[in-house]
Amino acid sequence: MTNKQKIDDTYISEEGMTDLWNVWYSELLDGQSGLTLKVNRIIDSRESSFQRIDVIENQDFGKLLVLYGSLMVADNDNNSYNEMISHVPLFAHPAPSQALIIGGGDCGALTEVMKHPEVEQCTMCEIDKMVVETAEKHFPRLTRGLTDARSKVVFEDGKSYIERGSNQYDVIMLDLSDPVGPAADLFQKKFHQRVFEQLKDDGIMVAQTESPFYNRKTVEALYENLREIFPIVKMYTCFMPIYPSGLWSFAFCSKKYDPIDDFDQERYDRLQLDTQYYNDRIHRACFALPEFVVRLMK
Questions:
Q1: pLDDT at position 17, please?
Q2: Which of 36, 72, 73, 194 is the least buried, fewest Cβ under 10 Å from its Cβ?
Q3: CA 262 – CA 275 distance, rounded (Å)
Q4: By C-alpha distance, which of 203, 196, 274, 208 is closest to 235?
Q5: Distance (Å, rounded) from C-alpha 175 to C-alpha 21?
Q6: Would you state the pLDDT for residue 2?
């Protein structure tokens, strides 16, 4: 049946289902404010050894991935987060042959990195294998990079991987969930210092650094620590509609290269990347910060 649904031996129209199927998803910060979406369908729900994983569907955003109650990615979020955490450092580094992603279980960042032929290998270290499996099933557009021979996936705690590592990377991306649960240790100064040591002498680290509107104390502490480690630390932002406030930030941390002065325009023009959000104008403009963020960073 396409127009009717049988409930308790009674057929009712789809229009009559409205009140019966009235499910909403809310992500609240401190229980005060946040984002609320009407859920058209709950597509998948499972529990891994680390967290609850849900896939829901909304009319505006399509399918959304939810980890321990926090929205991660959506079909219709313009892929801005994945593009910005990947292309900004890769176009600032002149020869990004070795890349590492800590986290990134939806594989969106990995797929964007694979658009750069200069990358000889990109390792993604993700603690939760079930997140990758869920992304492969429900978000195949994000997981295309897994089929690239230059990609390598390691299922391990990112902190342990970095602490015992001996490889030297050109670019390291900390594509982490919020600083709670298994990701909490990966926001600490000790971890960032070890990442610094895993970079080559001209290496770049980029990390997601939460909302500068909602997470002000976290942002202040993070950048204070990062400036004590890296000689070049600059915040940049993007519009991420499913994240708190819609304004999301990243820390560009470099041993040598400036993200604007060293942007490789020739390589950008040559590659002609297929992107939805990132371009050369955004690359430069994203480092221009609103005044309230400038004051927060002082």
A1: 46
A2: 36
A3: 21
A4: 208
A5: 35
A6: 42
The alpha carbons of the chain give a radius of gyration, in whole angstroms, of 20
Residues 60, 36, 219, CA angle at the centre, nearest 5°?
A: 105
| The pLDDT of residue 66 | 96
Interatomic CA distance for residues 287 and 260, integer angstroms:
8
Q: Which residues pair with 122 in a beta bridge?
A: 99, 151
Q: Are 195 and 172 in contact (CB under 8 A)?
A: yes
Q: Report the amino acid identity of residue 4.
A: K
Cα–Cα distance for residue pair 227/223, rounded to 1 Å: 6
Rounded Cα distance, 287 and 104, in Å: 23
Domains of the chain: 4-74 (2.30.140.10), 80-297 (3.40.50.150)
- Block means of pLDDT (10 residues each) for the chain, length 298 residues? 43 48 80 86 95 95 94 95 98 98 97 98 97 98 98 94 88 79 59 94 96 91 93 98 94 98 98 98 98 91
With 0-12 / 13-18 / 19 or more C-beta atoms within 10 angstroms meaning exposed / middle / buried, residue 230 is: buried
Residues 220, 159: Cα–Cα separation, whole Å: 22
DSSP structure string for 117-138 = TT-SEEEEEES-HHHHHHHHHH
Q: What are the pLDDT digits (tens) for 189-205?
A: 888 999 999 999 999 99
Alpha-helical segments (H) within 120-277? 129-138, 158-163, 189-198, 216-227, 265-271
Q: How many CB atoms lie within 10 A of CB 10?
A: 9
Residues near 182 by Cβ (< 8 Å), separated by ≥ 6? Answer: 50, 51, 127, 128, 157
- Read off φ and ψ for residue 257, nearest 5 degrees: -90, 140
| Closest CA relative to residue 121, chosen from 174, 196, 171, 191 | 171
- At 8 the pLDDT is 44
Catalytic residues: 175
pLDDT at 275: 98
